[in-house]
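Q: I'm teaching a short session on how sequence maps to structure, and I want students to see two examples side by side rather than one. Could you give me a first protein with its sequence written out and its structure tokens following it? Keep the formatting plain so it prints cleanly on a handout.
A: Of course. Example one:
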Amino acid sequence: MDDRLQPEVIARPVRMDKRGAHESHAGRARAIQFELPVGNDPVSIRKRIEAMEQVLERGFTIPGTRYQFGMDAIIGLVPVIGDFITAVMGAYIVWEAKNLGLPRWKLWRMAGNIAFDTAVGAIPVAGDAFDLLFRSNTRNLKIVRKHLDKHHPETKVIEG
């Protein structure tokens, strides 16, 4: 078959630690790399959601610590517009969850997580600190993972 007709993966993982974060070598941070499939099957959707969550919540590590933060905290520093942009990026996870067939109550709960994060994050200074602590996208990923592990066990990733 012709490979150009069926693109499988846009990026491939190179080196990750046990938590799924990028490793650093001799004080230098490595680029964030993850698998980003383009299919509509539950496995592909799960990987895309996990990639978006990693970018938004765990993309960077504070040097000298193990504390991770992501683009949600960085973009949220821009007043009003930054919080709106991160809300739209978080809504992508809800949209993918809808495509998976999650029940409406779970979708509303996910939307509530994003709305709460956006509302509190819009408060100057205190909201920026809150963005570092409240990870709405990580909470939404847990909801999606729990649903997929129950209804699509073939998507479950066994780490070890």
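Q: Perfect. Now a second example for contrast.
A: Example two:
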Amino acid sequence: MSASSSESVRCRGVRGATTADGNTREEILQATRQLLALMIRQNGIEPQDVASAIFTTTVDLNAEFPALAARQLGWLDVALLCTHELDVPGSLRKCIRVMLHWNTTKASSEIVHVYVKGASVLRPDLSRLPPVDWDELENWIDEELAVQARHRQEKQSGTT
């Protein structure tokens, strides 16, 4: 993040939510990676500017910690926390939510909150996304995962 002298850096909350297709490790991680990828791309978020992230799941999702998806995308120095949402009768099931605390020069009105899949019903007023090309998004995620794998290999070869 490069802020000019006239721009103040503020910590902004970026919200997002999605639904997983099922309660498996891969379904939870895939849904969370997709959500994070959309939040990153819509807002221009860099990992070094993220102070922390809180991930919640509904109680019917417990096969994996969704924060692992952020680690897979290279968020190794970001404070992450996982917890369960309140189990409110009649609420959306298989839902993953995230709250990012992002250091940015953007105004709060410029933040794009991301609500996709079944979670778009939670905040239709904040769902300003164009249609998502899920295949293209998965390709972007695969590229990011490959970059992170190369970084890990470089670190390991440099220390051995």
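Q: What should students look for in example two?
A: Point them to this: Strands lie at 10-19, 50-57, 79-84, 95-104, 114-115. Also worth mentioning: The longest strand covers residues 10-19.
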